[in-house]
Structures are given as structure tokens and as C-alpha cells.
């Protein structure tokens, strides 16, 4: 066969030289044309070259600062290729390929450039190495046969060298393994392979009329058998358009197709028919086709063919390369089923290159490296250090990757030896992990990510269990307790169990005594454990000491709880008294207004009385406060929630001002009598509350009636208006039948005039003060992103165009103020958190319509507690958040807040899980606490005036000690002082 191969190479060498000569002639012509063109446009292109060079330098500087800027890499490569800077272009492509998987387009351009520059055999080997690197990237291996075909085509140019034909066949065989099973694109590779073998067949056939020698006949028969084999292999694989291939084989073959081949073909055809619905679903689906691929994968997993399972996974990842769950499922299948080292490790490597922010993929990669016996240098330096620089989204992700690495180091240690290099490396890694969490992670996230000190607990247990070093374990636990964990019973019991297992009785008793003294969440539990321990281990004296200590501790706890309950009762009473005072003041104010109106005559007086009666028809409560800036997502429902608190306003007007003019002109319907009748027949059980309607909605009563009549007959629609006659954006819809209400509630969030309306049950808040319809999210929303810095002219369609390439989204909401004007903010809700994470990485810091936007994971702050006074709610909104998420620290203007008005700390009382009970809010006197635990006295008018006048220094720009009179520097501070002053009676001009 070696002689046969040599003869084939000799016969095809002339063909190769002719093709190469033709290419060189074309290149020479192109170069000549290029020179001529450059002479003509030399003057025009000089300025462009300078601009491009400046842009190239800017991009290179930017990459030196942030090497992970994907778009910057792409722009730099395009400019360098345009300018013909081949050396710098090669370097730029090399750097990008080390950080990211390259797209098929970038690889093809790179390969074609290298092929044009390859003149010698040594250069050809470099091109082969580049092809090998290209086919390892995810998007080249499975997206299509283009790069494999380019690889085979290039190798054909080297068939004149020794073993050239065999190398081409080897590349085609690898291409068939990679994409030959691709049902829609695999046919191209099979046909290219057959065309190559047919070309070889043409060179070995004898001349017409000549008699072939035995060697020539043997060579001819072998080549024919190769082509027969390719046809048979292809017909055994389920591919689209298999019938055409079978017909081609019948036409090509000089003898009938065997029954065995026909049987395999029919079997593959049946398999293709089964898979065809999944392929058709992929053809009609919109990218990224995640659901369709998932269904296809589940089908292939049930079928159980490993090769086809691998192919469908690779196809899915080609279009969903930034979906961590897909990579996790694929690598898990490879780890548990195929277990082929090269395939497993390469897939894990591609997974973390595509989704470097996902800690789970890095953990699985470290396990796979250890499972397949990778060198310690590969695990530690090449991969773990890369994971630390991957840019995880949460602080807890760094805890997980450190735990995975420490587990790997622990399994390398032989604890039968007192000391070893591996043990010292493990201890050094624990020390580095703690420093890393304290410095790097806390600096970035403003939280450690490991409040329970899990890493330190593992270290302490390893020292106690494997190293028999309880002294070191105790030192670690002392450090754990000093980090705020001493108040939790479960932490003390964990330490006690460690001492119980590996320590001694003395230290167990000491730990339990400290637990009884320090625990604040479940003191009864640790007291019970101490008494149980003394029953088993202690003497009578030790038992008496334990009983006395637990009784004293529980007595103090009960006293503290009683004080807390007393304070809560007193606060509730004070709130009731304040509410009663406000109701009385409001009633007196209304009475004064009615007295003033008694002197008025004519139709104007009657119209005003009718409006007053309309006000009284709503429930008696304060006007809702306006929502403050920065209260997180779902802010666009504020109007709806405020309206749910009370039915304040005027019902029944269809035209805000026109009706008033009609009444004044002499059209006097019996409004008061009608309203009184409506109030008598009002039924909340047959009604729904509709909010978040547009303030500019024209004829709201008619539109809302028409909208809800699809659910059933509507008895009455009660839109709510302001005193000036403008619509307030919410109303009440009462049906004739109570059974219609559930159908109406299903219309929640449907749009009316381009705005989603909220439909909720109608509940009397005076009878059900704790009723709450809308539940606002106050935790990290990983599937939703928050965008700031948008231009006010940005539309929803433009934002959809910007976000659609990062995944499929459920909803996009542009934040507006109450007047409907944009605020430059938006929320985008994606299908899953992976798409949201991808959008954050790709969109944060980009320039959109000449505005640099900021993008982060949505992390709404805590909502205000219902029932607080208005000043307390406003004050609470200015308190800085304690837990910061992906957006970093929340901004606050607390530094501008007078210290004299700060809430004073009350004696701490603990509830479940160590959470403080709510303390009284609002300004209080700075008086020493009395022995009876009486509450601080609220400020009077004189106190409030004193706060404003106390120690006032009139020098410009100077704030005196205690900072009692502040310059109002913003609307926020002005609003605060106005709201706070409402808690007190007016201050006279002389007092001020």
C-alpha cells in the first residue's frame, strides 16, 4: 500500500503545481492593481490612515487596561486587517484567542490570511497548527462544516508531499466524526470526501483502449471500494435528503445495491423521520432556540446513542454558548457517561471560557482535572488562578471556589505523616483564602460572602480530626466568635460538638458556659444542652453552678422580652392616639371650611358642597405620600398601592372641568342624592380596584366599563378625581354579580392605552388595615437587570433592539415619573439569570445614543414598613442599606442629617435568628433612660424650635456643634424638613 500511495502522489503532483502557479499569477495581478489604485488615491487615504492608526493605538491602550473587553478585541482586529498590519494583526488575534473562543468568521479570516502568507513547508506546518487550534473552539466544531472543509481543502494542496493523500483522508475522517452526524449540515462533508476520492479515482483509471496491469487493476479496485464504503457509511447515518444520496449511489454503482446496505438505509431513514419534527422545530424557531434544543437533547438521551447525544449538545451550545446550565448539563453527561479524558477536559475548558462568571463550571472543571490525574501545576496555577480573576457576580461565589480548591488540596495530603509539603501548602492556602475574603472580596462587594466563617470552620475541623491539633482549632473558633457569631446558638453548639469529639470535658464545659452567656437568639436551647451535659459529666457542685447560671440568664432574657413587649404596646397606643388626633383635626378643618362656605350663595356654593360630599364618600385617611427616588424595582405600581390605602378623591366625573362649568351654567343634576344612593348600594365583594391607569385617560368611566364588560354586566364604575378635576389614575368597578369578580381579576397587568393596569380585590382598609395586595421584591433579582444613564428620548423599541442579542426577555419597562416623563432608567426582565448575567457583562459601560449607560443585576432595597408615621417612613428611606448587592453601596444623604435628630438607640432585644425587634422611630429627646424603662418623650413645639435655633452660628458656610440649623441644599432636605414639621403644631414667626 505504501507503493500505491507513492504512485498516486506522483500522478497528482503536476495537478498541484499547476493550481499553485495559477494562484500565484492571480496574486501578482491583484498586487499590480493594488499598487495602481494606491497611487491614484494616495492623497485621500493618508488622512484615513492617520485616523485609523490613532484608533488602533487607543484600542491597544484600552486592552492594556482591560484585557477582557471582547468588543475592543474585535474592533482592533478589523482595523489592523484593514490597514494590512500583518504582524500586529497576528499578535492581536493570538491574544484574543487566549481569552475567548473565536467566532467562525474571525477564524476563517485568520486562516485565509495565514494561508496567503505560507510559502514554505515550515509555514505550512504553522497553518496546520492554526487549523488544529481552530477546530477545538466550540463554534467551529459544531456550527457547520466550513472550517473543516477549509482544512481539508488546504491539506489537498500538500498531497505532493510524502503521506499527503493519507493526511487529507485523516482530516476528512476527523471532520466526519465532528460534524458527519449533523442531520442538516453533515451531508456537505460526506459529499466533499467522495468528490476527493472520485478525483483520485480519475487519476488511477487506465487510458481508454489500454489493458491495465495487475498493479493498476488492484489500485483501481481499492479506490472503487473506498467510494463504495463512503456511500454505505453515509446511507447508514440519518441525514436530511437521504433519498437523493441513495439515488446517486444507484446511478454510480455498476451493480445492484446489496440487501444489507438497503436495510441499513431504511433503518437510518426511519431514524431520520423520528428526528425530523425536532429539526423542523429548530428551523422555524427564533434564536436562541433553547427550548427546542432542550427537547431534542431529552429525546436523544432517551435514545442513548453517545455520538448523536454529543452532536446535539454541540449544536445547542453553538447557539447558546453563554448559557451556563447547558454547559453544566453537557459536561455532567461527559463526566458520568463517556469519561474520555481529552473530550471531557476540552469541554470543561470551553465551558469556562464561554461562561467565566459561573462558579459552578469552574468547580466542575477542578474536579474533572483531579479525576483525570492532571498535574498540580495545571489545577493550581493554570485554572484556579484564572477562576479567581473570572469576575464572579456574588461574594458567595468566591467562597465556593475557594472551598473546591481547598478540598482538592486536602485530598492530596497524607495525614499519616506529621509534616509534609502538601500539608504546609494546605495551611498556606487556608491563610490566603481568609486574607482574600477579607481584602479583595469585602472591598468589592462590601460583604465577606462568608458570614458564618465556613472556611475557618473546615480548617478547624481538619486540624482537630486529621492533625490532632486542638490548640489551633480553638484559636480558629475564637476568631470565628469574634466576627459576630457569638450571639447564635447553632455556632456555639457546632464548637461544642467539635470539643466533644476531639477535645476534653473541661473545654466542653467552658464552651457551654460561654454559650449561655452570649447566645441571644435561642438561649433556652443552649441552657438545656448545658444541663444535659452536667447530668452526664458533672459533679453536684458543677450541676448547681450550671442551674444557677441558666436560671439567671433566662430571668434576664424574660425581663428583656417583657420590656420589648411593653414598648411595642406603648408605641401602638401612641400611634392610635396620633391617628385619633389627626382625625379630629381633619374633622375640625372640614367643619371650618363648611362654615366659611355658608356665606356663599348661588349655584357655585351648591357645586362646592357636592364636591365636598364626593370627598366624604371615600374612606377617611391621609393623602398618600409620593414615592421617593431609589425605592427599587416595581416602582411603577406606587400609584396603585397608594390608592389601595384609601379611596380619596372625587368619584363619577367624566370630564374634569366641563361638568363644573355646566353646573355653574345652570345644569344642576341631583349629584348629592345620586352619590348618597350609590354609597348605600356599594358592595366591595362585587367590586375590584383598578390602578396604574394613565392620568391622561380620556373618558375613563366609559373606557373602563367597555373593557370589563367582557367579564360580565357592570353595575357601576367609580373613577377617582382630584379636587382640580384631573383623573388620579385609579377607579373602582362594581359588577352586578359577585361571581364576575374572579374573571375580572384575571385581567391584571393587561394594557390600557399602552400602560399595564393592576386589578386587585376591593378591600376596606379601615376594617382590614393589614391587607396588602402588592408584594414588592426586596432581594436580589438575578433574572432582571437595572439600566441607568439612558437618554430621555430612548424608546422601548430601541431598548428592545439593544437587549435582544443577549437573550429573550419577558418584559422591558422604562421608568417614568408621575407625569409620564422618562427618568433615564429601565428594568429588563430576562427568561433566566444566565441571560441577565450575560447582558450585564456585555452592556455595562457601553455608549448608547451618546450616553454611557450602567447596567447591573436588579437589587431593590427594603420597602418601608406599613403603618409608620410619614416622617418615620421618610427618615427610614434615608438610612443606608446594610447588605449591598451587584450595584455596590447604595447612595444616601444621611451625612446631611442633623445628629440631634437621629433616632436614639433603645436597649437591644433579640428575636428569632438574632434579628432585632423594631425600635421606635422619629425624633426623640436625648434623655437618660429611666429605671422603669419609660419611653423617650416626643418633641414638643418648643423642642423642635430649639433644635432649629440651638447653637446657631451665623457665619457663612459654617455649621455649629450639634448641627442644629442646616442649610437646605436640595429638594430632598427641604422635603424632609417639611414632612418632619407636620408632626408638630405650627411655629409662630416670633418663636422662629
UniProtKB/TrEMBL annotation:
This is Spliceosome associated factor 3, U4/U6 recycling protein. SUPFAM superfamilies: RNA-binding domain, RBD, TPR-like. It comes from Lepisosteus oculatus (Spotted gar). One of its GO terms (biological process) is spliceosomal complex assembly. Residues 1-52, 609-622 have a biased composition (Acidic residues). One of its GO terms (cellular component) is Cajal body. InterPro entries: HAT, HAT_PRP39_C, Nucleotide-bd_a/b_plait_sf, RBD_domain_sf, RRM_dom, SART3_RRM1, SART3_RRM2, TPR-like_helical_dom_sf. It comes from the Eukaryota. Keywords: Coiled coil, Cytoplasm, mRNA processing, mRNA splicing, Nucleus, Repeat, RNA-binding. The keyword Cytoplasm applies. PROSITE patterns: RRM. Residues 583-597 have a biased composition (Basic residues). Its main location: cytoplasm. Residues 573-582 have a biased composition (Basic and acidic residues). It is found in: Cytoplasm; Nucleus speckle; Nucleus, Cajal body; Nucleus, Nucleoplasm. GO terms for molecular function: RNA binding. Residues 686-764, 783-860 form the RRM domain. Residues 1-54, 573-636, 660-685, 903-938 are annotated as: Disordered.
